[in-house]
């Protein structure tokens, strides 16, 4: 009987040890912090998104595409005003997200457009300014995806062609609950 209980407690210690190890490992690899319900709302782009935005502009430039970033972080108020567009105010509906429901509100999304040589904005998906036979817009989307962005043009329900976001595995619900991506972490990039 005494032997059985000592074997049991040995096992218990071993199991507890692995649970502890697993917890520590998870803590280290967690890509987000839980800031709780009262978490502050970011006021600028997440540094990793900022860095990859700049890379995107540079890489597009390298293949003769001039890119304009038309939107970065958007406050809740700005988001709500945008939501009203096409509903209670003039214009077309451009978003289905209200304040707090867009990755823009957390500094995790950007929008882009193209520019011609005179600096005029171009929203034409077929525009081929660098003359290589491919749509500049889609070329930019491909570069962005290689950099780890999710592209709104790939969405099934509501295609948002100018939109790029990095979610870090967090849903809007997670962000509303105060989870925030860590400011330093490895973003998976596709090498090519
Ligand atoms: Zn957007």
TrEMBL record:
<dbReference type="Pfam" id="PF13539">
    <property type="entry name" value="Peptidase_M15_4"/>
</dbReference>
<feature type="transmembrane region" description="Helical">
    <location>
        <begin position="6"/>
        <end position="25"/>
    </location>
</feature>
<dbReference type="InterPro" id="IPR009045">
    <property type="entry name" value="Zn_M74/Hedgehog-like"/>
</dbReference>
<keyword id="KW-0812">Transmembrane</keyword>
<keyword id="KW-1133">Transmembrane helix</keyword>
<dbReference type="GO" id="GO:0008233">
    <property type="term" value="F:peptidase activity"/>
</dbReference>
<keyword id="KW-0472">Membrane</keyword>
<dbReference type="InterPro" id="IPR039561">
    <property type="entry name" value="Peptidase_M15C"/>
</dbReference>
<protein>
    <submittedName>
        <fullName>Peptidoglycan L-alanyl-D-glutamate endopeptidase CwlK</fullName>
    </submittedName>
</protein>
<dbReference type="InterPro" id="IPR052179">
    <property type="entry name" value="DD-CPase-like"/>
</dbReference>
<feature type="domain" description="Peptidase M15C">
    <location>
        <begin position="97"/>
        <end position="166"/>
    </location>
</feature>
